[in-house]
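User: Watch each token:
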Amino acid sequence: QVQLVESGGGLVQAGESLRLSCAASVSIFSINIMGWYRQAPGKQRELVATLTNLGNTNYADSVKGRFTISRDNAKNTVFLQMNSLKPEDTAVYYCAAHNFEVTKVRDYWGQGTQVTVSS
């Protein structure tokens, strides 16, 4: 069982920055993929960024060049640095862990943290 706790959300103005943190209850190096997702009101949850245990990253086109996913293995924490925020980045941001098992992928989710960007 993996428990994930997000923090760092808040209200900022357009153009400002925020850094989200996701603390895991296990070694994140043992998790195949860590990811950040977001869900805006009335919209489906969407992928923002992922980071594999080999260090490979992937970003949604809408955040490329502005957001950076990283990790601190010693603290079992994954970060999402968000720069040049836009009002359309407003959403609840979720941290997720995806572990590949023999016959399936097991997913774990945090409770989410609200990010609001005012214009």
